[in-house]
Amino acid sequence: MINSKFLLSAMFAMACSATVFAQDDSFDLSSQRGEKQDVNMVPGKKINHHGIIVNPTPHNFSVDAQQLIDLSQGVNVVDKQKKFANDLGFVKQDKKGVKLTIDFGKKAAQKAGLKKMVSGAYLLTADNNGINIVGYDERGAFYALQTMRQLLDSPATGGKMPYTQCNDYPDLPLRGVVEGFYGEPWSHQVRLSLIEYYGRNKLNEYVYGPKDDPYHSSPNWRKPYPEDQARNIHELVEACNRNRVDFVWAIHPGKDIKWNEEDYQNLVNKFNHMYDLGVRSFAIHFDDIEGEGTDSNKQVDLLNRLTKEFVKTKSGVAPLVVCPTDYSQLWASPKENGQLAIYGKRLDPSINVFWTGAVVCSDLDKATLDFVDSRIKRPAYYWWNFPVTDYARHIIMQGPAYGLENDITDQMTCGVLSNPMEHGEASKLALYGVADYNWNVKDYNPIDNWERGLVDLTPEAHDAYRTFAIHSCDTETGYRRAESWETRTFRLADYTDAKASALKNEFEKVEKAPDTMERDCKNPLLMKELRPWLVEFKKLGKRCNTTLDLMKEFRSGNYASFWSNYLRNRMTNVDLTAYQAHKSGTMKLQPFYENGMDDMAVEFFHKIAGKTPAFYNAVGTYATLRTTQSKLMLDGDIKTFYHSGNSQNTGDWIGLDLGAVRPVREVRIIQGRNSVDDVDYFDNTILEASADGKTWTALTGELPKTYEINWKGEPVEARYVRMRKLQSEKKSWCAVREFIVNPTTPESLPFKVEAADVNAAMPAFDENPCTSFNNAGKLTFGIENGTVSYTLLTDKAMAKGNVVFNQYNKKGKLISSTPVDNSLMSVNVVKKAVKAELEGSVEVFEIIANK
């Protein structure tokens, strides 16, 4: 897992290639994608806990912070079962201290009056008689100690123990984390840090199954781990035991398994090897495979035989867990002969079954559990693909854990398992919420949990961390998450000083937050993971701040100063590479910067040229076309692509708004992510144009299985151009690498252009102020009849040496030479001039002929 690996993120970039994953090239489930693009708001609200912070939220919990037990003399521990000597490091122990009694067991629990007799349940009381803990089992007593530790750490208690009554229990029996992503597995140090975090927050399962661990998957699943790696796994098992977490070792044999006795013995041998390392819980993953390994009946035969011959014969082995090939409702067969139904009829009832929900990355609701449970005949084990980002590696998810219905019971699911990011420390914020939900489903409050989690993870820098986290929540495509919900941005047309002032305050916070995190955050592992994003976050805050200033300057009409400052706020190619690799603020901050810069460029061109620029915007039936992601099909780079982010259906269309009615003479569209073998394209389409967006004229006939559309013809007056999907069974996403209308070419211009590379010089005449080329010598062009002057848009501040604008008569004699000393300047055409020349090393954005 996860199939969302194939949900390639559409990142805004001018020079990036498609993301590469460590997946067998022969396997592509792209055609089965159908991720929802809805962005729902985070439910819940922040609560005043009056300084008492406990996670997960307990049931039957009352605290009197006015009555505190002084533990400065320590505690006198009465550990009746002799199990907790290593779990009391958070308190001083002294025979003269306050009595702390710890016991567990069914009889003790019944006598104490525990509300629920389930694993992990406990009673914690603290009053003038001392502190008393009774657990249903050892794990329950351990959890009571975690609650006690959090009470002592709470702001309201000052290290003292408040009078407490806590009769607590988990709602869901399995509460875990799966290291099941594609990409770089966690380091040993991070894994150990996470295991301790699981224990503190009452999570009880860690499934070890990183896709890029070669000894977990094919072909090396048959081989034992090398000595050093085996030693690390043993240490992980021991750490899990200390934190009362079940270490579940998963194997992924389905890519090349042979359904014969030899491979069965290979599997048993590997299990025995892991058993010798201390592993007592096992999972088999048949996800993301094709071929022989997908045979449902053979999977069941294997699992049942392992249960009989290994699980039930080895001491202390827990029931197996399986991830089916049909792990998502999106492609799971609902029929009686489907894999889930076969599992329900034949699979040993002790074996738990993973399930990702309606689609690969999706919310947890009763509808999807009804679907799977009715077929597998047991409560599914919900594999929640959050906060995983192996399908959006440029994102580091720091938003709230939400999308989990509050009326789910243990009769519907045996638990929720989170698949986090490859950034383990940064995943803790989401896991804080996953732990809270699993423990107390009904009372789970995502916003409040997130606010508490920020403080828990970075108590010394939580305000700065919050500023970063609230702007680093969304994936841009795939499993969408609310982001920047407290920030109101606007477009240039809606600018007011009041709006700008409010927004500037937020941008200043954004710009300062990374430095505060660097100075104050005391979690080096977290900072190591966040640092590349924090570096770019600071730059983004500065760019956004400057964009606000530019908007004000533009509105003042000081265009020369504006243009010079505008150029300084652009990104270089180096900036773009970093910007695309470590994104935050994708829902509001980056669009504000990008749209603001574009809006100003368009209006600026209109002001100085007196006409609408050839700056085109994407339109169509996909919501993501309205975002900055659509620029990827307008950037002139065939290695980048816009991705629809949703399944295609007959009638869907992708097009361009040309800004004004124009004579459309040429259209070129390149579909697919990277090749003619790609599945993400409209495999039956038609090219159309419209002046009003209502009445459409066909430019082509039906175009079946056409990756590249090239149309030239008699000009058609149109403002909109689109490709529309005709009848087809294809349901995959659609990708577009390039969508070009009326490309500026030497042949399309009414005058002759001469340059070292004529095609490279075309941005100087394309009527788009956002494109440019670097003139390194001489750019010569004919002067059209009626031209009285030229407006030059350059980056003079970055020019190397002298830059001049020369004019020649028809005999080729130089008759005028004007120094280019400003980025925005006008040069009058002298009498008898027929040819002009820009000479010098300078970036040229536009040469505008004024008539």
How would you describe this protein?
It is a single chain. The protein is α/β, with parallel strands linked by helices and 851 residues long. The protein folds into 5 domains: 61-168, Chitobiase/beta-hexosaminidase domain 2-like (Chitobiase, domain 2), CATH 3.30.379; 174-444, Glycosidases (TIM Barrel, Alpha-Beta Barrel), CATH 3.20.20.80; 492-609, Methane Monooxygenase Hydroxylase, Chain G, domain 1 (Up-down Bundle); 617-741, Galactose-binding domain-like (Jelly Rolls, Sandwich), CATH 2.60.120.260; 753-850, Sandwich (Jelly Rolls), CATH 2.60.120. 28% of the residues lie in helices and 23% in strands. The chain has an 8-stranded parallel beta barrel. Helix 6 runs parallel beside helix 7. The longest helix is centred in the middle third of the chain and has 33 residues, at 524-556. The two termini are 63 Å apart. The model is unreliable at 2-35 (pLDDT under 50).
Describe the secondary structure blueprint for this structure.
Layout: E1 61-69, E2 75-79, E3 98-104, H1 106-112, E4 122-127, E5 130-135, H2 138-153, E6 161-168, E7 174-179, H3 188-200, E8 205-208, H4 227-242, E9 246-251, H5 261-276, E10 281-285, H6 296-311, E11 321-323, H7 339-346, E12 352-355, H8 366-376, E13 380-384, E14 413-418, H9 424-439, H10 446-457, H11 462-470, H12 497-520, H13 524-556, H14 559-568, H15 573-581, H16 589-609, E15 617-620, E16 642-643, E17 653-671, E18 684-690, E19 697-698, E20 703-704, E21 708-725, E22 735-741, E23 753-754, E24 773-775, E25 778-782, E26 789-794, E27 800-808, E28 814-819, E29 824-828, E30 835-850
Parallel strand pairs: 2-3, 3-5, 7-8, 7-14, 8-9, 9-10, 10-11, 11-12, 12-13, 13-14
Antiparallel strand pairs: 1-6, 4-5, 4-6, 15-17, 16-22, 17-21, 17-22, 18-19, 18-20, 18-21, 23-25, 24-30, 25-30, 26-29, 26-30, 27-28, 27-30
Helix pairs in contact: 3-4, 3-9, 6-7, 7-8, 9-10, 10-11, 11-12, 12-13, 13-14, 13-16
